[in-house]
Design brief:
- It is found in: Cell membrane; Cytoplasm, Perinuclear region; Endosome membrane.
- It comes from Vombatus ursinus (Common wombat).
- Pfam families: BAR_3, PH, RhoGAP, SH3_9.
- Residues 676-734 form the SH3 domain.
- Its main location: membrane.
- With 734 residues, the chain is an alpha+beta fold.
- It folds into 4 domains: 14-252, Arfaptin homology (AH) domain/BAR domain (Substrate Binding Domain Of Dnak, Chain:A, Domain 2); 268-367, Pleckstrin-homology domain (PH domain)/Phosphotyrosine-binding domain (PTB) (PH-domain like, Roll); 392-574, Phosphatidylinositol 3-kinase, Chain A (Orthogonal Bundle); 681-733, SH3 type barrels (Roll), CATH 2.30.30.40.
- The protein is 48% helix and 12% strand.
- It has 18 helices and 15 strands.
- The strands form 3 sheets. It has a 6-stranded antiparallel beta barrel with strand order 1-2-3-5-6-7. Strands 14-13-12-11-15 form a 5-stranded antiparallel β-sheet, with no helix packed on it. The chain has a two-stranded antiparallel ribbon with strand order 9-10.
- A hairpin with a 5-residue loop joins strand 9 and strand 10 (668-670).
- Helix 2 packs parallel to helix 4 (157-239) and helix 10 packs antiparallel against helix 11.
- The radius of gyration is 35 Å and the shape is extended.
- Mean pLDDT is 76; it is low at 240-254, 256-261, 372-386 and 588-676.
Length: 734
């Protein structure tokens, strides 16, 4: 059993058990702090030792480079010349190795030491300061309460009332501080999982990259070593009949690393709060916009802007003004309001609020406003103001949006993660939820609605249902298999639970998940992997009936449930559950512990392919491990990169191995065959050289005389007159 969640409601009770849970969280943080402190000490010692070794190695390399063999006579043999040059080659190999070691040492400082020091001082330190405040306020609160309760009842009423007020104010302050402290405690417990482990991952990545560079240097050295051994043997044989004397000379060397304002003329401009209506039960929100009106053209411009969130400007909207009407307080529970109606959206007014009555008059005058009639009930809008339902119109909305997305935007990057402008999304949803206008909207062919507006409207519709699509009743039972069991048992359990959903819920879920499966199949283009879709649709399709801290901690498991639905759509929705299998674990049963789920989504994390020589730390596909290739020798480069993520230019069909590249013409080229004639290639990713033998280039660069290299995973080519190595998975042959 891990640490128990700290419920905010317990702050007001402040029970002994609540205090015990707080102490458990504090003890865990103190243990983490001590561990990080000791780890930092060891890490700094490691860096110091690495630097000392590097200094000694460099000194040795300098000595080798400056040493020169003297020959007897007036000429050297070819073997002697090669032997004479060998020390310089040895020096170069060592210097190249030490350059990589220096990068590794710097990487340890930047990726491990500094992030951990920052986390310990800023994050853990901030919680420590909050603990001091909390302990101090606890002492003050209960001391004051004891003193207050000891007051004599015979004191004057005025004195007692003043004491009561003081105690109540102090208790309120204590509760607020308690809430903040509990929030920070739980936040740091969750934050440390990634802020601690991520620097460690970077540290090992850097270390393994260094060793891999050493492996690459050793392969280069092996070819040179074989030739040098022949030179040495020939010289040794000559030495038998010749006595020579050698003198050397050595020396050492050192190395050295905005804002403009656009003026415009408007009849009136300034900030207004704009009401953004949402389907029940979400009500409405008021968003501050900077609004401008050009009277001659009757163009109204509104741009969302919030000073408190860093001053980020949202997507602006421009429309032609039809009319402006003053709102009475009888029709809205806010002052200084008026309605603005756009010419292209009759009957759908925007309600705006000025900062004062004087400002409202200025806006009304500039916009040609008029007094409103007394409000009357508009029966046609009842459905728009009501909540979404699982009815015929609901299914129509779903199918219309899906068809539009698959027709117009299936390859859009960030599909479903990029959100639309709130006011536009609300207008589209209002039109779709109106029985009179729903069938008239053509989302597939009309460019009036952006794809991000359509996807946001679809998500908003699903969130607006009276209960989530996967129901409150089954919420807990869906969560259980995501927390425990083998991958197969999880799929079986969720398969069973889906078929317990009400028929309409299951039908709509089937339509949606089939669409999400299609979206994930285009992940190379839209970057929406199964994992990304789980993040988006987990909270949309599932949510608990009661919001607590413990329930919020289950969000990640909701995402896993959606991932399982997408990855196993055909089985779950096209077949009946196996009646011979046991039913899923119920809410009352404590599930056994199980290893975390690993799925195919792990191979889709990186947008940009990693150069072949860099060590890839992607996990092996636990559900479908790839057998090792028999023709790959132990210790070769292929064995290091066999589980690297497949870049977009590689063939995704099951036939070709990873050494095949798809050209512009659709031909598969076998890189392992070493039978490629010279040809041109174009860069599909930018690359910065990490070694003098490599080429740096931008997207679109065209290489001449491209040939396979003896380095696995690399090509040789010429760019701007310079010849060098090119990562094969960064280019496409022409």
């Amino acid at each position: 059993m891990g640490l128990q969640p700290l419920e905010f409601s317990d702050c007001y009770l402040d029970s002994p058990w609540f205090r015990e849970r707080i102490r458990a969280h504090e003890a865990e943080l103190e243990k983490t702090n001590k561990f990080i402190k000791e780890l930092l000490k060891d890490g700094k010692n490691l860096i110091a030792a690495t630097k000392s070794l590097s200094v000694a190695q460099r000194k040795f390399a300098h000595s080798l480079r400056d040493f020169k063999f003297e020959f007897i006579g007036d000429a050297e043999t070819d073997d002697e010349r090669c032997i004479d040059a060998s020390l310089r080659e040895f020096s170069n190999f060592l210097r190249n190795l030490e350059e990589q070691r220096e990068i590794m040492a710097l990487s340890v400082t930047e990726t491990l030491i500094k992030p951990l020091e920052k986390f310990r001082k800023e994050k853990l330190g901030a919680v420590k300061e909050e603990k001091k405040k909390f302990d101090k306020e606890t002492e003050k609160n209960y001391s004051l309460l004891d003193k207050h309760l000891n007051l004599s009842a015979k004191k004057k009423d005025a004195h007692l009332q003043e004491a009561d007020i003081q105690v109540e104010q102090n208790r309120k302050h204590f509760y607020e501080l308690s809430l903040e402290y509990v929030c920070k405690l739980q936040e740091i417990q969750e934050r440390k999982k990634f802020e601690f482990v991520e620097p460690m991952l970077s540290f090992f990545q850097g270390m393994f990259t260094f060793y891999h560079q050493g492996h690459e240097l050793a392969k280069d050295f092996n070819h040179y070593k074989m030739e040098l051994q022949i030179n040495i043997q020939n010289t040794r044989n000559r030495f038998e009949g010749t006595r020579s004397e050698v003198e050397d000379l050595m020396n050492k060397i050192r190395q050295n690393p905005k804002e403009h304002k656009r003026a415009s003329q408007f009849a009136v401009e300034g900030y207004l709060y704009v009401q953004e209506k949402r389907p029940a039960p979400f009500g409405s929100s008021w968003v501050k916009h900077y609004c401008m009106y050009r009277k001659a053209a009757k163009k109204f411009t509104m741009i969302p802007f919030e000073h408190r969130s860093g001053g980020k400007i949202g997507d602006g909207e421009v429309f032609s003004l039809k009319e402006c009407t003053k709102r009475h307080t009888d029709s809205i529970d806010r002052r200084f309001c008026f309605d603005v109606e756009a010419a292209d959206r009759p009957g759908i007014p925007l309600t705006m609020q000025a900062f004062s009555e004087e400002e409202r008059k200025l806006w009304m005058e500039a916009l040609g406003g008029k007094e409103a009639l007394l409000p009357s009930l508009n029966r046609a809008n009842l459905r728009r103001e009501g909540g979404a339902q699982l009815d015929k119109i609901g299914f129509t909305i779903l199918r219309k949006c899906i068809r539009a997305v698959e027709t117009r935007g299936i390859n859009d990057q960030g599909l479903y993660r990029v959100v639309g402008v709130s006011s536009k999304v609300q207008r589209l949803l209002s039109v779709l939820m109106d029985a009179k206008t729903c069938n008239e909207v053509d989302l597939e062919n009309s460019l009036d609605w952006e794809v991000k507006t359509i996807t946001s409207a679809l998500k908003q519709y699903l969130r607006s249902l009276p209960e989530p699509l996967m129901t409150y009743d089954l919420h807990g039972e869906f969560i259980i298999p995501a927390k425990c069991g083998s991958p197969e048992s999880r799929v079986n359990a969720i398969h069973f639970l889906v078929h317990r959903l009400p028929e309409k819920n299951k039908e709509m879920l089937d339509i949606l998940v089939k669409h999400l499966t299609n979206v994930s199949n285009h992940a190379k283009q839209n970057l929406m992997t199964v994992a990304n879709l789980g993040v988006v649709f987990g909270p949309t399709l599932m949510r608990p009936q009661e919001e607590t801290v413990a329930a919020i901690m289950d969000l990640k498991f909701q995402n896993i449930v959606v991932e399982i639905l997408i990855e196993n759509h055909e089985k779950i929705f096209r077949t009946m559950p196996d009646a011979t299998l046991p039913e899923p674990v119920s809410m009352s049963t404590s599930p056994p512990n199980a290893p975390p789920r690993q799925s195919k989504r792990q191979g889709q994390r990186n947008k940009r392919p990693v150069a072949v020589y860099n060590l890839c730390l992607e996990l092996e596909d636990a559900d479908n491990p790839s057998p090792p290739k028999e023709d790959t020798p132990t210790g070769s480069l292929d064995s290091l990169s066999s589980h690297s993520p497949t870049p977009a230019i590689l063939s995704s069909s099951p036939g070709p191995e990873k050494n095949h590249l798809l050209t512009d013409g659709g031909d598969l080229v076998d890189w392992a065959s070493n039978h490629i004639v010279s040809r041109k290639a174009r860069a599909v990713y930018p690359c910065e050289a990490e070694h003098s033998s490599e080429l740096s280039f931008e997207i679109g660069a065209v290489f001449e005389d491209v040939q396979t290299s003896r380095e696995p995973g690399w090509l040789e080519g010429t760019l701007n007159g310079k010849r060098g190595l090119i990562p094969q998975n960064y280019v496409k042959l022409l």
